[in-house]
Amino acid sequence: MSPGDTASAKIKAKCSKIGLTKVVNKITFTCSKSGKNLIWSKSKITSTTTTSVQATLEKFSFKYNLDSSLPSDFVAEFQTVMKNLGELTPIESGSISSNKSSMDVYSWKSTTGNPFQSQIGDITGSSISGNQNKRFMVLEIPALEFDQKLMHRYSVIPHEYFHVYQLSLAKKDLGAGKWIIEGGAATFESLYIQQYYGYNYFKDAQTNVGLAAINNPQIFETYGSEEINYGSSVFLVLALVKELQKLNYSEQQAFRMVYLDFWIEFAKQSDWKIAFDKIFPVKLADFYQSLLGYTNNINSVLPSESLRLQTIFSS
After folding, report:
1. Which residues of the chain are in CATH 3.40.30 domains?
2. CB 97 within 8 A of CB 133
3. pLDDT tens-digit series, residues 95-114
4. Which of the residues 67, 78, 101, 299 has an alpha carbon 20 to 30 A from that of 108?
5. Residue 31, number of CB atoms within 10 A of its CB
6. CATH says 44-169 is which class?
């Protein structure tokens, strides 16, 4: 947010970018379009005692259903992370489910069992579930992650959020290859953790890269392929970024092509491989061939630690 935005966050004052938010005197303002101008307006925020907070991201909103089993510090951090993500990658209204402008998030601590069975059934773990008529985010946080203060309790939030962002760009089910879906979300979560927590999650959780990632990468196109923490899918996305950099794209441009441009093109195509070949200057078959020049070591493809997500999505 620019200094000008910070100083002028009041109703009908001018702002610079749709979707920016600012809290002034406990009132949240959102930058939105009015006629030909961008102005600050009050965001609609509602809450209940334990489970529901409405956070507006541009014209799309998430309804937070947070069980009381979750520690208060996690709830506060969850809301901060979601606010940051909404500013970085706002979701377009109506793009996730038919004529829907919101999504429910259900989160609880694993030791309580699923307290939302009447709303989501027996779904557990972490996912974006549902269908074109109704989608929702599930975040069951293992108790161990609170006890041992594991970073995954926070990293899972940007991971699942990014799947919502992918859906918003694709405007249909994510029928692309698993490695670009999950590798995209998993690299995004690691970049978020690296930037906001100063912690290299790539080296902590995504080092298990199978030999098949370089000599048989096609197997990671489907969800039947086994991998730990999507380590091989992460490797493939980072290797693609490296190949683009060899063609004189900046690191920011390369990630933008993976995170944004590919999914916009995929919305127009019936096959993700067609979208791949249209967006990237290297054909998918040639990319797979180039992987033979790598070792299956995450350290060989790590992004810059100084990389900032804002530079990716604003470039």
Report:
1. 44-169
2. yes
3. 665 547 889 999 999 999 99
4. 101
5. 23
6. alpha beta
